[in-house]
Design brief:
Layout (H helix, E strand, L loop, with lengths): L9 H6 L22 H6 L13 E6 L5 E5 L3 E3 L1 H6 L9 E3 L14 E2 L2 H14 L4 E2 L2 E3 L13 H15 L3 H13 L3 H14 L4 H13 L3 H14 L8 H18 L3 H7 L3 H5 L26 H8 L20 H24 L1
Parallel strand pairs: 3-7
Antiparallel strand pairs: 1-2, 1-5, 3-4, 6-7
Protein name: Tetratricopeptide repeat protein
Pfam families: TPR_19
Keywords: TPR repeat
């Protein structure tokens, strides 16, 4: 029997370009078959990775090999909206499982017989979910991939994204989304592989740097985590895959994590990339010089990092609704500040002359 925590989709190996024909069969693939340095470190420290919810174990039958086994199926979404349109269809056609699991016997995935006890749980949970949308491991709703497609199992979503990568070409954003599927499915080792491939393609993929930083913090690799969070700050002004408010939350959280792993406020400030650091890679960044802001950083309050996050967002900060901006004016350079002061002086002189004439 194969170890569930080590099972790998052969398609992942192929998409990474690691299939060199050395493995005797797809079941022989392991983390050493894949690219990246972080996955092995995480695999060696899986107990350190925080689990947001308790395992949801069910005994399922693989319809490919006919054998049964116990699997953590994760959170289960019940798509009541679509089921109400097709009430004659079995309810299990409208269940989506977030856990990442493959057959322990044959390594196939996505072709399962749902056990009666699980269907009974769903039937019991449904009336309670009308009052509370979340009950135990069950929720009313549906899970969509980044392109709007819907899949019953996380392994189906994995296959969908990998096929897009193999037909459309290497894409940092696709690899990031695949990493999120693995992370949600409780395979942080595979998530690290996907995130590292993402930044290998595009080192400015902010979300992948952020996620890698968080994974590395959880296993105590603080120095490596710091480098990824610093990269988030270096790329925030050019990143366009997130809405402005979500981008600010990512950048603020990266700042918060840097504060957490620093030895005091002075160490934190010295770890922040300077405008000159960023200019080494990017021109026209929209991050003004000579900007002075009063900071009151409260480690447990994400919003206290918003003003500093907006500085690193540069031109992207202008996309925030005006009433939601923490910086009430946009960063400006020193010459702009001097012109403003000179204009104010001229205005005051004119007002004084008018008063004298009166």
């Amino acid at each position: 029997m194969l170890k569930q925590a080590e099972l790998i989709n052969p398609l992942l190996v192929e998409a990474l370009g690691c299939n060199n024909g050395d493995a005797g069969s797809p079941n022989d693939y392991n983390l050493s078959s894949l690219r990246g340095k972080t996955a092995a470190k995480i695999a060696a420290n899986m107990d350190s990775i925080e689990k947001s919810v308790e395992p949801n174990i069910h005994r399922l039958k693989c319809l490919d090999c006919g054998k049964k086994g116990e699997y953590d199926i994760g959170e289960v979404f019940i798509n009541i909206e679509d089921h109400n349109i097709n009430k004659e269809d079995p309810i299990d056609h409208y269940l989506q499982c977030t856990g990442y699991f493959r057959c322990k016997h044959c390594n196939s995935a996505g072709n399962w017989e749902i056990p009666n006890n699980m269907l009974q749980e769903v039937t019991f949970a449904l009336p309670l979910l009308t009052v509370n949308p979340d009950f135990g491991h069950y929720s009313i709703g549906k899970s969509q991939a980044f392109d709007g497609s819907m899949h019953r199992y996380s392994t189906d979503t994995e296959n969908h994204i990998l096929k897009k990568i193999m037909t459309e070409g290497q894409n940092a954003y696709y690899w990031n989304r695949l990493g999120n599927i693995y992370k949600q499915g409780r395979r942080p080792d595979l998530a690290a592989v996907a995130f590292e491939q993402s930044i290998r393609i595009d080192n400015d993929q902010l979300e992948s740097h952020y996620s890698l930083g968080n994974l590395l913090i959880e296993i105590g690799r603080l120095k490596e985590a710091r480098a990824h969070f610093q990269r988030v700050l270096r790329t925030a002004h050019t990143y366009n895959e997130l809405k402005a408010e979500s981008l600010r939350d990512f950048v603020s959280s990266a700042l918060q994590q840097l504060f957490y792993i620093s030895d005091g406020a002075e160490s934190f400030l010295s770890s922040l990339p300077t405008r000159e650091n960023i200019l080494e890679e990017h021109e026209g960044i929209g991050i003004g010089e000579g900007l002075e802001i009063d900071l009151e950083l409260i480690p447990d309050e994400l919003e206290s990092f918003y003003p500093l996050a907006e500085v690193y967002m540069g031109q992207n900060a202008k996309k925030l609704p005006l009433k939601k901006r923490m910086l009430k004016y946009q960063p400006m350079n020193r010459s702009q500040e001097l012109r403003m002061k000179q204009n104010k002086k001229k205005k005051r002189k004119k007002e004084r002359k008018k008063r004298k004439k009166k």
